[in-house]
Amino acid sequence: MEELQGLQVYKFGGASVKDAAAILNLCRIVRDFGPQGPLVVVVSAMGKTTNALEEIYDLAYRGEDYSAQLGAVEAYHHRAATELHSYFAQPDDTMVTQLPNYFQELHQTLQSINSVGSYDEGYDQVVSFGESLSAYLVTWALGNALPKQVLYNGALVATDTTWREGRVDWVKTEERTQEALHGLLNDWRGRVMVTEGFVGQVQVDGFTSTTTLGREGSDYTAAILAYCLRAERVTIWKDVAGLLNADPKIFPDTVRYPEISYRETIEMAYYGASVIHPKTLKPLADRGIPLYVKSFLDPAAAGTVIHECQHPALAPAFIRKTDQCLLSFASKDFSFISEENLAVIFSALAQAKLKINVMQNSAISFSVCVDFSERRVHQLLDLLREQFTLHYNTGLMLFTIKNYDAASIQQLTTGRALLLEQRTRSTFQFVCKA
Questions:
Q1: Who has the most CB within 10 Å: 98, 186, 205, 243?
Q2: Is pTM, for the whole model, over 0.85?
Q3: Is 8-238 a domain of CATH 3.20.20.70?
Q4: pLDDT tens-digit profile of 252-269?
Q5: CA distance 231 to 266
Q6: Taking the domains of the chain in order of start, what are their residue ranges?
Q7: Which residues, 6+ apart, have CB-to-CB distance to 238 below 8 Å?
Q8: 317-433 maps to which CATH number?
């Protein structure tokens, strides 16, 4: 195992690369705050590109016209490319000339999408283009902005064929990262390598196919690469001051945690805290790699460090998940919900790829709250309707208070009709209408 002393991983999300000005700010952060040693930069798709590509894919899959939506995505990236090109005095011209090739390839992929094996497999082939485009623009901008060698490497994470939720093949991924590392080994000081977040690869029948790691999976990519490269630290650059006890767009008077433990953060991420992807912390904790959450709007500020530590009682954390669905299953013969019934329900939930956010059972019924996907919910209903009476409600919200107290519960529940509530020693959750 070859190692580079002082290697760090930076991850920049969609808001931090949303346009030319944001990408230039990324360049300034790498120049002014980046490490003296080698740096791996992981990027998400620009702005809301992933949402736009999801819409385009749905249209293409249904055989409907997507030309206007695709044209808007292309114009958006072309505008950013043109503005970046005009910023530099003597820029390399390859970006503006090569960018159309990406969209030609995307168009060809969309035209042949119905020949792909499944909806989820096709999704990965299309939606992953957002990260490829972003990584291309960021690589070009860094290469023109910095007096250091900037390298680009495509998806480094090897996965299985679990489309849209690729499971990491850690052995192959470590082999790939080691190969990529050779590009940094010769006179590595100050070198930068840019790669795509969210995206993985798998070999299927001798051909390389694209997979993805789940929505917001670029954080996870950064952690995977840090684990495989034995990085010194990871920094996730966000539009907030660090890890806060609530989303400042939703809750007033938020509190920043200066430091917080891996375990506490893993639990907050599991319940839906938007700052960190739920799978990010485990590989970092396994290697003892600290994770810093910092603001790209104020890069000199302290932010938050997540590591193995002891801290006093934390301020209650408020987490809200929207677009929730409450599903209730009842036995048709009024018999008790048994372990055998639960095994059938859990198996069907796994088949439909529905993640349980809250569950609760009574004598003759079992309820779960999940992220709503019409296609997946109907798949679940098809699997279970012969055995159970099923009801579901959509358009709901799930609130979680981590480290709750009486005041925090009253603050969130006052004036709301609770459809389901549950509390443990440290966590209070409830489902209500949006």
A1: 243
A2: yes
A3: no
A4: 889 999 999 999 999 998
A5: 20
A6: 8-238, 317-433
A7: 13, 15, 16, 275, 293, 294, 295, 296
A8: 3.30.2130.10
